[in-house]
Structures are given as C-alpha cells and as structure tokens.
Write a structure and sequence with these properties.
Strands 2-1-3-12-11-4-5-10-8-9 form a 10-stranded mixed β-sheet, with helices on both faces. The protein starts with 5 loop residues before the first strand and ends in a 9-residue tail after the last strand. Helices cover about 35% and strands about 20% of the residues. The protein has 3 domains: about 210 residues, Isopropylmalate Dehydrogenase (3-Layer(aba) Sandwich), CATH 3.40.718; about 130 residues, Isopropylmalate Dehydrogenase, CATH 3.40.718.10; about 100 residues, Alpha-Beta Plaits (2-Layer Sandwich). Helix 1 packs parallel to helix 12 and helix 10 packs across helix 12. It contains 14 helices and 18 strands. NADP nicotinamide-adenine-dinucleotide phosphate binds next to loops. The site of NADP nicotinamide-adenine-dinucleotide phosphate has 20 residues, from loops.
C-alpha cells in the first residue's frame, strides 16, 4: 500500500446513488484505503434549489483541487434545468474519454457465462449530439447538430490505443457509422486510421456500428478495445454491460488530461431507490479503477478480489442477480464483500496494468490546415407548406440574373427538385442549395446578403450554411438522389 493519503471529491448523487456510494465507502475503509472525502452536491437536489447547471461552485472547486472524484448517478428532474449535470461535469473538466470495461465475473449467471468476455469501450464523451446544440426549425421539425472534430477524434483514438497498451490488450476496433455520415462519423474513422500508424504494436480494425451490435451479441469474446463516438458509445456500453450481468456490475470513468470522475454506468434507478436492494458493485468496481488511477494497486487488487469472491460464493447477492426470493440487501452484500477482503479467487486473474499514459494532443484550435479552400455556394433552409415544384420554380425566378443558381432542393435529405422520388412524404422544412454560376470565383458576403434579401422577401428562412471546397474536394454531403 502507498503511504500517501488522497483527498477525493465524493458526490453521493441521486436515487440509488447514496446507498451504493455509502457501501463503497465502507468497503474502501475496511480495505485500508487512505482516503479523505470531500462530500459535495450535484444533480437533482441542486436543480431543485434553482441552480440550472446542477453543479454548484463548491463542487467544481473541490474537483479542481482534488483532480479525482467518485460520483453516484445524477438525474435531471423534469421541469428543472435543461442540461444534464453529468454532461456539464464532462464539459467543465474536458473529460473527453469515458472508459467502460466489461469482464465476465465468476458466479454471475448469464447467457454468455463461460465465454471469457473481457473488453473495454472507450466512448468519446464531450462531442457528437451530446454537445446538445438543438433548434426547432419549424414548429414541427427539430434539429440537433452533430459536432465531430479532428481534435476530439485524435484525443479519443489516442486514448483508446493508450488504454490498450496500459492493459496489455492487442486490438482496437473503431466503430462508426461512416458509411452513412461520411464527414462526421467518417472523421473518426479517418483519424483512427492515421493515429493507428503510431501504434504498430496494436491491431487496428474498423467496424460499422450496427454490425458491431450484431457481433457483440453473437461473439462478444472477439473484442478487446472498442473506440466510438459519444452516442454510439452510450448505447453500446449499456449493451456490453448487459452481456456480463447487467448495469449493477458495470463501472466507468470519465477522464481527461487533469481530472478523472469515477462512476457506475447505471443511472439513479428511481424505482428501487431507498429500498436497500440496489447492487453497489458497479460503484465498488469504479472505486477499484479509481484506486489504480491513484497508484494504489495493492488495495485495488484486494477489493477486486473480495468482490469476485463474493459473487463466486453466490450466498449474498442482490436482487438484480438472483431475483427476489434469494436476494440479499445492499448492506448484507456489502458486509459479505468486506468479510472477503484478503481472499483470492482461483478463477480470477487480476489484469496486469501499466499506468495509463494520457495522450498529448495539440492545444491549438485549428489543428487541421487546408492547402486550399473555396466557398462555392449556400444551403438555405426554408419553411414552406406548398409543393416542391412551386418552391423550386419560385426560387429559380428569385435568383434569375444573380451570381447564384438554384442547384437542387431536398426535403429530409431526399432531393425533391428538379426531380423527386415518387414516395416522398414532405414536411415544411426544405434545404435549398444555391451554387455560384462562376465555378472559378469565391462566394462573397455580398452574394449571401443579396440572396437572403431576395429570398427573405417572399419566403421564411431559418438558417444558412456555406458550402466549402477544401483541398479541392466538396466539403458537404449530397442529398439522396442529387447528381
Ligand atoms: P438506470 O437508472 O440505469 O436504471 C435502469 C434499470 O436498471 C433500473 O430500473 C434497474 O432495473 C436496473 N439497475 C440499474 N442500476 C442498478 C443497480 N445498481 N442495482 C440493481 N438494478 C439496477 O436508467 P434510467 O432509469 O434510464 O435512468 C434513471 C435516471 O438516471 C435518469 O434521470 C437518467 O438521466 C439518469 N442517469 C444518470 C447516469 C449517470 O449519472 N452517469 C447514467 C444513466 C442514467 P429494474 O427496474 O429491473 O430493477
């Protein structure tokens, strides 16, 4: 055991959080962990007193001081606050990686028992749809911006390879939907392929995310490290926790360059909160990860072995693992784990690890330099209840004798003008693509202003998007059916 004491920010959280966190604290104390806790608030109770962020200043200051937190699940009560306190914490400390290990535990029944599942999902944690940039485009059409950056992709893919190295793993799969979203999801794929060259000791494979979902429920044992975008990772990591016994067993860490917040994958499970029946193992395993992060490998191994021995004994398991008839309470399960401190399972080998080296990534905002770029047109998004032909012909007249021409109109991504698919079910939200007639010239602000003034005189528009050519390639997607 290291001699050093560590001060940890402790956020009990909502629902089953406080009971699971208390059980974990009791276990760590019994194991001899030299920890001092700073108990802080976040989540529902903070929203309820009118703090719309769900994370008070004292909590932010405590994490800033301590660099490490153990956190129960946080919920956003309906009617209070707009943003999740979890998402806020991840953004505040740039916790760009979410590591979610899944390993078959001896004694835990399940469809895949005996298959030796042992994988880790590395989920990008701050970008993608979770940036939460949403707008109603018309009263009946909503939009969420999916922001994926080269910088974010570089950080998360390097982290995945570093995780592989630190845990002695051999393969990293990058899971994307790059076949459909070639620019956003494709950016992760391209970055992964570039970054993989710096890790020749690790096998790098790309897989389409839906195929991964299928493969995971057929042959989950083939996966080692899976790196993916925020939304994909959120879903896939719940799936992988289900493979080995469920959310009650699944730990996670939100990690960035300077701060790590350890938690369970599960949420506040309000239906079982306060009943002393929740399974605290997920947060206990998160605490094991935390102890390793602090360099306290001996304590971590001891607690991990005690948990494994308790599950293996199967005499004091919680309701999620054995059903109501044979279930033990949270407290009784915790007592059993504590009683098993010092035991070593014959079925469990603690994975040998080197400390995780957090990757260095350039801090400059403009990581990618283009050798050439040109602005070649504008997508203008309009609200319109008439037909595609009326809209198209009307706009052709509006831009007659101007530097821009109407190239096409799409509705929910399908081209509907000048030609349309017969089965399109129209909504009142239209993308109208205007291109410069002179293909050698660059779009000027005056062109944009003129277009907005002309179209705006007769049509309701809600946003415009410039169409770029970067390094000689169009840097925007085509509509389905667009030539
Ligand atoms: P959830 O809280 O994870 O619960 C889903 C179900 O999983 C529960 O109803 C329960 O199943 C089971 N479960 C989860 N953890 C368990 C445990 N430790 N022991 C035993 N069973 C457990 O998901 P949710 O109901 O979708 O979310 C509830 C709230 O939590 C939401 O406000 C959500 O936003 C928040 N949330 C927070 C975090 C976080 O803080 N990191 C993560 C996810 C969700 P049974 O009903 O079958 O008993």
């Amino acid at each position: 055991m290291g001699d050093k004491r560590h001060t940890i920010t402790l956020i009990p959280g909502d629902g089953i959080g406080p009971e699971c966190v208390d059980a974990t604290r009791r276990l760590l104390q019994a194991a001899g962990a030299a920890l001092d806790w700073e108990v802080c608030k976040a989540g529902a109770e903070v929203f309820r007193v009118g703090d719309a962020t769900g994370v008070p200043r004292e909590t932010i200051d405590s994490i800033t001081r301590n660099h490490v937190a153990l956190k129960g699940p946080l919920e956003t009560p309906v009617g209070f606050g707009e943003r999740s306190a979890n998402v806020t914490l991840r953004g505040l400390f740039e916790l760009y990686g979410n590591l979610r290990p899944t390993r078959e535990l001896p004694g835990v029944p399940g469809v895949f028992a005996g298959r030796q599942i042992d994988l880790i999902v590395v989920r990008e944690n701050v970008e993608d749809l979770y940036a939460g940039i949403e707008h109603m485009q018309t009263p009946g059409v909503a939009q969420c911006l999916k922001l994926i950056t080269r910088k974010g992709c570089e950080k998360i893919t390097r982290l995945a390879f570093e995780v592989a190295r630190s845990e002695g793993r051999k393969t990293v799969h990058c899971a994307t939907k790059a076949n459909i979203m070639k620019l956003t999801e494709g950016l992760l794929k391209r970055t992964f392929e570039d970054v993989a060259k710096d890790y020749p000791d690790i096998r790098a494979e790309h897989i389409i995310i839906d195929n991964l979902a299928h493969q995971l429920v057929r042959w989950p044992e083939q996966y080692d490290v899976i790196v993916t975008t925020n939304m994909n990772g959120d879903i896939i990591s719940d799936l992988t926790s289900g493979l080995t016994g469920g959310l009650g067993l699944a730990p996670a860490v939100n990690i960035g360059a300077g701060v790590a917040i350890f938690e369970a994958v599960h949420g506040s499970a309000p239906t079982i909160a306060g009943k002393n029946i929740a399974n605290p193992t997920a947060i206990m395993c998160a605490a094991v990860m935390m102890m390793r992060h602090l360099g306290e490998f001996e304590i971590a191994d001891k607690v991990e072995q005690a948990i494994v021995c308790t599950l293996e004994d199967g005499k004091a398991l919680t309701v999620d693992l054995v059903g109501t008839e044979f279930a033990s309470s949270t407290d009784r399960y915790t007592d059993a784990v504590i009683a098993n401190l010092g035991r070593v399972s014959e079925l469990w080998r603690v994975r040998q690890r080197h400390p995780l080296r957090m990757p260095e990534t350039p801090r400059r905002p403009d990581m990618v330099k283009a050798s050439s770029r040109r602005e070649m047109g504008i997508d203008m998004f309009l609200e319109w209840t008439g037909s595609a032909t009326e809209l198209g012909q009307g706009l052709e007249r509006v831009v007659e004798n101007t530097p821009l021409r109407l190239k096409m109109i799409s509705n929910r991504g399908m081209q509907v003008y000048p030609t349309a698919a017969p089965g399109t079910d129209y909504v009142d939200h239209w993308r109208c693509r205007f291109m410069l007639r002179d293909t050698k010239s660059d779009l000027a602000d005056a062109h944009v202003a003129e277009l907005v003034a002309r179209v705006g005189a007769s049509h309701k528009w809600m946003h415009i998007e410039k169409l770029l050519e970067i390094d000689g390639q169009p840097a925007f997607s085509k509509a389905q059916g667009e030539s």
